[in-house]
Amino acid sequence: MTLFLSLIIIAIVLGIIGATADGLFFLLVIGIVVFVADLVYLALRLRRSARRRPVR
Question: What is the H or E stretch that residue 38 is in?
Answer without folding.
Answer: helix 25-51
